[in-house]
Design goal:
seven-stranded mixed beta sheet, globular, Rossmann fold, alpha/beta
Length: 222
């Protein structure tokens, strides 16, 4: 028989293992399979880790996107945690994309998105140019997930004067090629920096990530 404390330890180990698996994925197919398996437990596990990206991103959307019926793309929507917060704030035209059908199924059940599609960041997106008033991405531009090159497509589908609002961990910003990409896009006149938050820890109760900081960025498309 396993004691309550034993089950608690096993749950903590399982959560941490799933987190390590997604950051260690070697391909999009592997990443998708891991997220498919994790989907039903994902929200509860991230809540246990103290996950704080969604309210930060939603607060920035509220600051820069005044029209509640503006079309917004949630790039890497996962189970729709960000979409839930945006819907509470009154945003009604949300589109979400993710590479995991399992995660999208959970997001779909929340009934806060007008449209959900299986699409992969880093590949051509099935949207028209200038389609969205804003594009958001929380916890996706990170190790083993979307590459810096995905920002080209996110700019393409976001209309001029629209905003890209996303998070980047400090290690990925420096070592994953994102700093150079952000600077290159600015130099090309494709966007301008509007805001960068102070750094904070988005997973304070995840043992392997308790010391990893991140910040949120806002860019205006030109």
């Amino acid at each position: 028989m396993t004691s309550k404390s034993g089950r608690h330890v096993m749950t903590e180990v399982s959560r941490e293992r799933r987190l390590e698996q997604v950051y260690g994925a070697k391909s999009n197919a592997e990443l998708s399979a891991i997220y498919d398996e994790w989907a039903e437990r994902y929200d509860a596990d991230l809540q246990a880790f103290g996950y704080s990206y969604p309210p930060a991103i939603a607060g920035l959307v509220a600051r820069y996107v005044r029209e509640r019926d503006a079309p917004i793309l949630d790039a890497g929507a996962g189970t729709g945690i960000v979409g839930e917060v945006l819907a509470i704030l009154g945003y009604t035209r949300l589109t979400g994309i993710d590479l995991s059908d399992g995660m999208l199924a959970v997001a779909r059940a929340k009934a806060v998105y007008a449209e959900l599609k299986n699409q992969t960041l880093g590949e051509r997106l099935d949207f028209a140019d200038d389609q969205f008033a804003a594009t958001v991405s929380a916890g996706v531009l990170t190790t083993g997930h979307a590459p810096p090159s995905c920002l080209d497509e996110l700019i393409r589908v976001t209309r001029p004067s629209g905003h890209l609002i996303f998070t980047l961990s400090t290690p990925v910003y420096e070592e994953g090629g994102f700093r150079l990409k952000l600077e290159a896009l600015t130099g090309q006149g494709l966007w301008r920096a509007v805001e960068a938050t102070p750094t904070w820890c988005s997973l304070p109760r995840a043992p392997s990530h308790a010391s990893v900081t991140a910040r949120a960025y806002v860019f205006e498309v030109l």
